[in-house]
Design a protein that fits this description.
22 strands; Immunoglobulin-like; elongated
Amino acid sequence: MKTKILISVLAIVAIAGCTVPGVPGLTTGPTVGAPKGLEITSFIAEPTPVYSRSTVRVVMETENQGGATSYNGTSFAYLTGSNINLTTKNGNYWYGRDPEDEVQCKYFNTTMKPADEVRGTPGDIKTFKWDLIAPNVTEGQTRSDSFIGRIYTDYETSVNGNIWVYSETEADASKANNKPLNKATFTSTSGPVAVEVSANPDPVIVYGSDKAFSLIIKISNNAQGTIYQPNVLSDCDISLTSEQLNQVNVTIDAPDFSGQGSCEGAQELISGRPTSLFCELTVNGNVATFQSYPISVRVKYGYYTQQTASVLVQGR
């Protein structure tokens, strides 16, 4: 089972992203400051410049910037870039100096704890390193190569709350006595994908046999990475089809309501843009007075973020 990360926060800010040229499905947006999950905090390749056939160390530093522990699983760091072939040592490519440097994927294989605000300790940090040999470059010439570092992880973002339902009699009585009607309340977890839930009308007022209302679920890319279908990557195979990009899976737990099936299952964020799901729910049973009903919305998805670093190679 892939690592799943659940990051706690009290509020979610939803933002729309813009497409990055040349990277299908990759969207970016401003950083909102909320914790997100496993993040690349530094990605460097040094020294630069270097002579051909010299060693360069590529270092990726990562940190759990979320609010919950990331447990052992198959979340991994991935190295790619221009002119890289880590196992071909013919001098035409960047290649790994030692066997541990000849793999593109390096797995976390460790529990990553979040920051402890009470104790003032930061989230767990893990560093990945690759020692690479520079390719041959003709004497007197130079070339610039780029390295790309990524983190691939499966996440779950959820919203839990209560929806208030009033009988017509109770609603009228509260209004007559100038008492405000209770409205739905939700607490959210945050991840790279933001989820917002609301009810319309709020509160729900049952008029006779009409016990229906709309549940609205807004899903948006809240960070600077790419969404993909959960539970599809394994064994360092990062191949993603266009049908797997920008896909999430929605589950609704609402035992006192019916009709949520239309919003569940696989859902697509077209071109990575925010999407809203509208489903008509019906209150089960009779409503004789006002009361609150629990509801939970869980959104599962895969996500990767990346950073780049460049090295100038001089021939000799």
